[in-house]
């Protein structure tokens, strides 16, 4: 028979592991087949253990002298920052936990660039749902170094330390994982972005997908970010995915401690009629806040201004100017019309207004063509995130609109390819010089064009012509048939609104 003292010792030794509620493990988003962020940044690795224990992390591989790192477990958490590692692998990452004498081995780990992909349903839209899905899925196995991870759909009232669930653990791509349940896994925009990027960078790319259909930007924003835009964090009575911060808490906050290269985002539809007029604050504000938080969480390894790419809204309703899409497109750029700009540094945007899809089996709000938006995002990433000098990633943008005697001249910042069709440009003719309502705007025709400019006809206007706008409707163009593109025809001019001056144009003639 055990003496009482002995039995309580046995019990407490047994209970120490359980009573802390923690078992020895890596956090949810470290696993075999993962990509860790490559040099020059250092990758952060962390997990859970028994307070007081030591965790010995070791990294080994055929061309590597084994590296070891010792991490004490403090408050149930251990954490270490690896030395900077060049792209490549495979490596084996082992964590050994002293008090239980147990090890966890992660195999086939590569170093590369990690991109986070987030947003609503157009980001959740899977590879199985895109146009040419069969070809895209068949190609999956040719890209074993583009690896995927996906957080499960979870929401929380408070900030979580680790993900509450994992939808796809780190994996090499397979048709089954990429084209799983509709809107469940894996994101087509995320995957195609990673695959196209891999073809250019030629080293491993890790894709971390964390998105949820039908969700507003407020759900993905911290209370601190919302407050800066004058939004109160909602007092949650009936919590749902529209509640402020619930997805930030459960699907972004847990990821902050991993080192990442950048993020891409496809969201905004849910804000077309929800805090729409605040989106020019909430969206840039969320980007700032994520940047600060990822930088802090990784102890400075993720850049404070990490590159952030996004898709400008496509189209939804053919003839409903009140669906809010035109305003959100503008607000996505902090009302500049283009990015990067002074408010949104180190960002890039894929314009999508010219790839509408009225017949999409998933509804017109979900265009089937994700290849074009991913391609445009990759141009942005190459130019902005990777500093490639020769990559054009922005369509033409006007520098001036000048009112002359017979024409309004619009000068663009690059050479253009123009088609002279009516109905895309409008001018504001108004007594009070305000152009706030649609009845102040009159369509005008393009009468001719040159290398980097167009002439618009001047319609009768008894008052003043004060502004011009372009593609200012929910569904302005047919597929890839807007009137103004870059000279090579690849990139559309985004929608804009611009004041008209009387100054002689400086950059034409
Ligand atoms: C720890 O585990 C190893 C491998 O299972 C074993 O060889 C060793 O004896 C153990 N050490 C202790 C202190 O239990
Ligand atoms: C789909 O495949 C067809 C035939 O190969 C090709 O012409 C088309 O460009 C593809 N569409 C996209 C969006 O990739
Ligand atoms: C955002 O847009 C609203 C509505 O158009 C406007 O009133 C406000 O001044 C804009 N705010 C910023 C910060 O640009
Ligand atoms: C992750 O980063 C946050 C923010 O800096 C910090 O509060 C938290 O303790 C970190 N978590 C881990 C597990 O290191
Ligand atoms: C950029 O393009 C120019 C002109 O086409 C070429 O001379 C130059 O080598 C290119 N630079 C890079 C880095 O590709």
Automatic annotation (TrEMBL):
UniProt xrefs under Gene3D superfamilies: SGNH hydrolase
Residue ranges annotated for the Sialate O-acetylesterase domain, each copy included: 113-296
InterPro entries, per the entry: SASA, SGNH_hydro_sf, SIAE
GO biological process: carbohydrate metabolic process
Keywords: Hydrolase, Signal
EC number: 3.1.1.53
Signal peptide: 1-20
Any Pfam family hit: SASA
A Gene Ontology molecular function term of the record: sialate O-acetylesterase activity
Name of the protein described by the UniProt record: Sialate O-acetylesterase precursor
Organism, as annotated: Danio rerio (Zebrafish)
Gene: siae
């Amino acid at each position: 028979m055990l003496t009482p003292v002995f039995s309580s010792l046995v019990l407490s030794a047994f209970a120490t592991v359980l009573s802390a509620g923690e078992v020895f493990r890596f956090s949810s988003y470290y696993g075999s087949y993962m990509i860790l962020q490559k040099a020059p940044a250092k990758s952060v690795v962390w997990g859970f253990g028994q307070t007081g224990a030591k965790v010995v992390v070791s990294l080994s591989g055929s061309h590597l002298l084994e590296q070891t790192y010792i991490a004490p477990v403090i408050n149930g958490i251990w954490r270490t920052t690896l030395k900077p590692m060049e792209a490549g692998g495979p490596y084996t990452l082992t964590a050994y936990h002293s008090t239980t004498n147990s090890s966890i081995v992660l195999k086939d780990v590569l170093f590369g660039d990690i991109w986070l992909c987030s947003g609503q349903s157009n980001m959740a839209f899977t590879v199985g749902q895109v146009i040419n899905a069969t070809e895209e899925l068949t190609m999956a196995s040719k890209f074993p170094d583009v690896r995927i991870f996906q957080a499960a759909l979870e929401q929380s009232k408070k900030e979580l330390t680790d993900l509450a669930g994992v939808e796809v653990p780190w994996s090499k791509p397979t048709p089954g994982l990429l084209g799983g349940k509709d809107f469940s896994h894996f994101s087509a925009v995320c995957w195609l972005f990673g695959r196209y990027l891999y073809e250019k960078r030629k080293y491993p790319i890790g894709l971390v997908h964390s998105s949820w259909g039908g969700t507003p930007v407020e759900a993905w924003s911290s209370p601190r970010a919302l407050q800066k835009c004058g939004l109160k964090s909602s007092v949650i009575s009936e919590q749902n995915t529209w509640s402020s911060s619930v997805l930030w808490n459960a699907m972004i906050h847990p990821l902050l401690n991993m080192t990442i290269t950048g993020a891409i985002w496809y969201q905004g539809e849910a804000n077309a009629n929800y805090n729409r007029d605040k989106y020019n604050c909430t969206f840039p504000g969320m980007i700032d806040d994520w940047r600060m938080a990822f930088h802090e969480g990784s102890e400075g390894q993720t850049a404070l201004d990490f590159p952030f790419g996004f898709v400008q809204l496509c189209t939804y309703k053919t003839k409903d100017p009140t669906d809010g899409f035109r305003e959100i497109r503008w607000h996505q750029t902090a009302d500049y019309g283009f990015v990067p700009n002074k408010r949104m540094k180190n960002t890039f945007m894929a314009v999508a207004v010219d790839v509408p899809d009225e017949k999409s089996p998933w509804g017109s709000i979900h265009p089937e063509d994700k290849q074009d938006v991913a391609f445009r995002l990759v141009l942005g990433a190459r130019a902005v995130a990777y500093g490639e000098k020769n990559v054009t990633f922005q369509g033409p943008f006007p520098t001036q609109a000048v009112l002359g005697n017979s024409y309004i001249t619009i000068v663009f910042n690059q050479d253009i390819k123009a088609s002279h069709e009516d109905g895309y440009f409008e001018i504001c003719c108004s007594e009070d010089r305000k152009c706030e309502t649609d009845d102040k705007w009159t369509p005008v025709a393009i009468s001719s064009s040159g290398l980097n400019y167009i002439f618009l006809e001047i319609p009768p206007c008894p008052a003043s012509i004060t502004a011009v706008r372009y593609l200012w409707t929910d569904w302005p163009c047919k597929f890839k048939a807007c009137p103004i593109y870059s000279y090579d025809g690849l990139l559309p001019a985004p929608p804009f609104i611009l004041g008209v001056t009387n100054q002689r144009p400086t950059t034409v003639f």
